[in-house]
Every structure is written in C-alpha cells, then in structure tokens.
Amino acid sequence: MTKLPERLTATSMLRISVTYDFPYYSGLADDGTVSWPPSPVRLLGALKAGAHHLHKDDVAQGNQAFKLLQRITESQAPLIDTPQHTFVDAPPTFVPSSNIPEKTDKKTLASVVDLSPFNLLTSAIKPKPQASLVMSDRTLYFWVDVDLSEQEIMVLQHVAQRVPYFGRSHNAAQLYVDEVPQLPALNGECVRYYPHASSRGKTRGWQKNTCEWFDINFERTFSADPTIRQLPPLPASGFTQAIDYIPLNKIDGENLDVISLEYAIPHWKIPHLFHRFSSLAFKNVAVVPITDSYRPYADGRLVGLGFMQKKTSTQVPVEEIQAEIAETAPQILDIIDDSSLLNTKWRVHQPRALQPSTWTETSTQWQSATPLLGFPDARIVILEIKNYMRETYGVDIHIEYCLNAPPHPWHARWSTSDLSEGNGTWWLSFATSKEISGPLILGERQDLGFGVFAPTRLVTT
Predict the structure, then answer these.
(1) Are 371 and 438 part of one and the same domain?
(2) Residue 43 covered by a domain
(3) Residues 432, 312 within the same domain
(4) Are 288 and 307 in contact (CB under 8 A)?
C-alpha cells in the first residue's frame, strides 16, 4: 500500500522532467490503448537507451550511468505528476507488414505483396493503433525517492540529454534530471499518481532485475554474434512488477477523482460491492460509482470509482483529503480484486465516463445514473427533491419523470431487500432553473451508490 506521509516528508527527491514539443502523448499498452500514466519501466528504458549512447562517447561515465540506473530500480516506484488531460480516440492507420518470410511462394505471397488494388485479400499491411491523449501542459514529472550526489545527478543529466523522445517516436521530448528539497504541494493544474502494487496491475513497475532484462534484450538486438541476434526478445514476466496508479487531484469539494477498474461490474451488483466497503473508515471522503451510461449500447456497468470530499460544514485541509484517498483507494482495489462480483470478460477500456468532467460539467438537465433511494410515494420523493435543490443549490426544478421502474437499457433494478429500510427506488429526470455543476448525488444511502445523477444535455450560452 502507498504510504503518503513518508513521501511528503522525504528530505529530498530526484525529479525527472519530461517536456514535450507538443502537448500530446501516444505511448501504447499491449492492448493498443494509451498507457497512462507512462510506466516506470518505459522511463527506465528511455534512460537505458540514453546510457548506451553515453557509453559510446564516454565509457567511464556510461558504466557509472548503468550503476545509477540499477540503484534507481532498487527504490520504490516513482510518484508521477501529469497535466490535466483528455483521451482522444483516433482510427488506426495501416502500415506495411515487416514480417517478410524467408521463402516466398504462392502461400506467402499475400504477406509480401499488397494485393488490395486487385480486390484480393492481403496480409501485407496491418493496422497500427493511433490512440493518444492531449495534455493541458507540456511537462510531466517523475519523483524518485533515491539519494544521489551532485556528480551522480550530473551523470544522469548527460543520460537524459541523449533521449530524443518519450512515448512513441513522434513524441519528441526533452528530459531533465535534478534534485528538489521536498515533494511540492499538489496544485489544481496537475494530477498526482501514487503507485499501488497489485497482482492485476496494468502498469509495469521496476524491480531489482529490470535492468538485467533490458541488458539481455539489448544483446539479442545489437550483438555482433548472429546466433544471439536470432534469439527472440525475453518477455517482461518476472522482470517487472505489476502496479496500479492512484490518481489524485487537488480536491476542493467540487472536484472528482476517478479511478478506472480493470474489469467492469454489472450495474445491479453495485450496492452489494459498496456494502463491502463499509468496513473501511471514511472520514472526509465519499466514494461514488462511475457507470457507463447515457450513450448508445451502454448497459450501466460499473467502470470506475469516484472520490470526492464529503459535504460538511467545516473546511478540511487538502492534505488530509489526499492522505485519506491515498490510504483507502488501495484497500478498495484489494476488495475489488477479491470480489466475486467481477466479470472478467468485461475489460474496461477508456469510456467517457472515466473522465471526471463527465460528472462535474455544468448543466440544467440531470438524469439518474443510479437509482435514488427515497420514500415509497413518488409525490413525497418529488417534494423532498424540490426542497433540497432549492435549499442547497438555490434552484427550482421541473420534474420530467419519476419512475419506480428502470426507463433505459443502462438502468437495472437493484436488490434492496436488506438495504432499502422500507424506502423505494426511483429513476428521475429533471431540469433546473439555472445551471449547476456536478457531481450531483441525492437521496438516502449514498454510501451504497444510490442517487448519482449525470448531466445529460449541456447548455451553451
């Protein structure tokens, strides 16, 4: 589990800055989606490549650089600060296949020659994913908890200067290495990612033998011995650590942090999963279900978890909110990993629901994403909602519908026999007299995921 206080009280930290020429990133994971945040192993691989270039120019400094990278792999996975960002889905491009057979015959001709102009099937071209994300700024930071001397930092800076890009070859970037006295406070312009070791983790973290893995594959690629070059690359299994990164924004009561799940959970199982979170002590943080709703073919499955500050009369310091999320989020992920509610056939990719702005946008139109738990009479429910919205947000509302049956395919009945305490479940749609911003959560038992509303029709002025 991530220990936030230890990171915040570190006497000094190594900072590795990555500044892009253009504010977009397109490094991909094995499944063709954007690997975000960039994995520690990707950073280590870039620095290893720079160290090999340095070794050609200065053997002594190159050897020292290799030893310093080994010391880095013996430290914890780094914290990562990234700009605010949004994912961009771009169609794949098609490139010539580089898999040329040793012998060309009638069977292998299609893999060498592009036969598509003749309306014939061909495997000479293959799709190349082009997923990427756009950032609000051009710089991201890796914070490594390792003590180095000024001379050693200078050697790593020589290594960083020899790295031309970070991500894919068209993500031109400049790397810079220095040391800062302590980890700076989080501001509202960036997202800070904390590592969490997980057997289901989708990010590759380094460990003590990761440099050995790079060295073996380097030899198999650039060796002067042709028999060694014929050996296939070693897979990463056993040389890297599976981790997840917990994202934290500067929580101020209106922000929402969203953590993606690896596998989705059916909509109707949400209250049962949240009931398992009751053993955790939430003091200042509320957990919100993030569902895939309000789009074609959506079925309301749970794809992520949102973290927000509880609505209290007292102002809670940001540092306390960050510490609580950093401590409880890994515990929640462990509960989900052990849960029988997961559907391992439903791998979560990058639906729009995982973007916090989906739930915090300003709108006058709101509809249920999860059912509201309230009085079993619709008239009382409507009256209570109108009074609450007038007292809390200063707006009047017009109810479009208030139903006790799921109105859309992304809704489902929740089994509430042991949770409802005599209340009914309702699905609502209403319009407000003026724009309000989310996240909007209404009704009873919000701790079980009830009452989440989504802005469904944005109003522009």
Answers:
(1) yes
(2) yes
(3) no
(4) yes
Distances (CA, A) of 91 to 16, 33, 113, 127: 32, 12, 24, 9
How many domains would you assign to the chain? 4
Which amino acid is present at 343? N
Based on the domain organization, do 231 and 249 belong to the same domain? no
**Span 202-228, pLDDT tens digits:** 899 999 999 999 999 999 999 999 899
Paired strand residues for 347: 263
Range of the domain at 349: 245-354
Instruction: Supply the CATH number for residue 34's domain.
Output: 3.30.70
Residue where a domain stops, chosen among 313, 339, 354:
354
Burial tier of 187 (Cβ tally within 10 Å: 0-12, 13-18, 19+): exposed
* 3-state helix vs strand vs coil in the chain, percent to 5: 30, 30, 45
* Neighbour tally for 308: CB within 10 Å: 26
Sign of torsion over alpha carbons 147, 39, 191, 308: negative
User: For the packed helices 59-73 and 150-160, what is the interaxial angle rounded to 10 degrees?
Assistant: 100
Residue with tokens 């916090």: 356
Q: At what angle do helices 210-222 and 59-73 cross, to 10 degrees?
A: 140
Q: What is the pLDDT of residues 46-61, one digit of tens each?
A: 999 999 999 999 999 9
Residue 402 is assigned to a structural domain of this protein: yes
Structure-model confidence comparison of residues 336 and 343, the more confident one: 336
CATH number assigned to the domain comprising residue 434: 2.60.40
